[in-house]
Specification:
Length: about 80
């Protein structure tokens, strides 16, 4: 069995969590775990988007990226993103 702990949330949040868990048919702890993972994924994707935005605004870095991706494209069947 996995270790567990207790966290403090408002009564309203607990009620909403329990309602969401009931709708999904899963335990509240599982819903929390899924929501945390989704939030973490969202932050990771946002960070990647910001990094690619910085890359797109830097002509020297963008040229280097394009040079490297052309080399990679020649080695693999799947194309790399066109930034």
């Amino acid at each position: 069995m996995a270790e567990t702990t207790t966290i403090r949330v408002s009564v309203r949040t607990r009620e909403r969590l329990n309602a969401l868990a009931a709708k999904r048919g899963t335990p509240a702890g599982e819903v929390v775990a899924e929501l945390v993972e989704a939030a973490d994924d969202e932050l990771l994707l946002a960070a990647a988007e910001r990094a690619f935005g910085r890359l797109a605004r830097d002509p020297v870095a963008l040229a280097a990226y394009r040079s490297e991706t052309r080399e990679l494209d020649s080695e693999f069947d799947a194309p790399t993103p066109a930034w």
